[in-house]
What we know:
By secondary structure, the chain is of the alpha/beta class. It is 34% helix and 14% strand. The chain has an eleven-stranded mixed beta sheet with strand order 1-3-2-6-8-7-14-15-11-9-10, with helices on both faces. The model has no long low-confidence stretch (mean pLDDT 93).
Amino acid sequence: MTDLAFRSAGQLAAAVAAKEVSSVELLDHYLDRVEQLDPKVNAIVARDEEGARAAALEADRTVSRGEPLGRLHGVPVTIKDSLEVAGMRTTGGSARWGKHVSTSDAESVARLRSAGAIVFGKSNMPPDARDWQTYNEVYGTTNNPWDPTRGPGGSSGGSAAALAAGLTGLELGGDSAGSIRVPAHFCGVYGLRPSFGIVPRYGSVSGHAPGTLADFDMAVLGPLGRHADDLGLGLDVLAGADHDRAPAWRLELPPARSTTLRGFRVAAWLDDPFCPVDSELAAIMRTTLEAVRAEGAVVVEGKGPVGLEETMALYQPLLMAQSGLVEPDASYAGLVERATAEGDAGGFASDLTLRFRDWHALDERRQHSRRRWAEFFRDVDVLICPVSPTAAFPHDHRPDPGWSVRTLRVDGTDRPYSEMLTWMAPSAVNHLPAAVAPVGATRDGLPVGIQVIAPYLHDRTAVQFVRCLEKVIGGFRRPPGF
Length: 482
């Protein structure tokens, strides 16, 4: 049964459909693992065992009656605590919403249920989804299953940790600044940041009040799983017009540009002096690239069409401006005062309080950046690049609202904590899909992932490329003790 817990979501659904295992048995198996193993991880922070068991019983009756089954029929899943799940607390990692009990599902959660998934718990996250570490005053700290002295990444850190530890069948997370991609990289699982706008976000509580209808620029929801196929399955279930647009809109994502590595045209951007990558990670990515080249792919090495410095000059103020929207009134007033003070031009407070006129000017520059990326992808199918400068780093809970105190250790040198943003920026600011696949491990046994960016709306191309990588490189490895 232990091996069963580490199968892909599609394999679990097939096992339930074939009556190899019942949905109730599978649910109990995951709940037992949560009880035994989660105390050393603290990934799954809220459970609805009664509701999940009732749903699993009904799922088994459906199998017995020989009725049509959904793609995730009977599969126990967990959901990032930024998303509403009917009957469960949804805190967004913040004490502000700590007592909120959802009365309905987020639209994405409803799609998972419609596909047959059994939602049994919520996974941990940082307050308001604003950190690459996962801890908060509501539920405490989540540890990395590979090394409990290190974090699992953020903000979907509980999601990735739960998958790596074999505590859930599939996860749903969110990503504005690497919140899916960094945890996937740190925990050695797969993650997909879909193209902006193709997965409905209604029901997300990330820094704003439950029930908020306005969307956030660059913010997306997407699947995390232990196997590359989980990304394709999750994409199939989640993508589509939201409730308001459904009467007239249809989403038909194009097929992957190739089905084999031999057919892919690959651009490789494995390091950059603007944001140096630890040499150990760079060597692992280099090995991955050579394996891709050996399979017959056409590989071109060099930078993307818009450099990291230019990209960050767009991305950081756009990201910070939307972060400013979630500041309490009193805090925001203080930021406005600081932004007008001498010497803060272009600083942290200025970005958080960006005027709409200035935001619009940045957005116009962003549209030109998007056009340059679209032209770039006429000649290549995917771009592979790092996820972050480092592998999972030790817990560091020092207060640091402006990212000026914490640091990253890169080749023995302290680098700014804010550099966690840099390799996240090209995909996010340009609304591009990006998948992360595990491709190796450091000398200390920490997972290393690689990021695969594809053209806008070519999500299936990114997913298929990581499927091919999984076959050639290998993929998920189980952490010791799990």
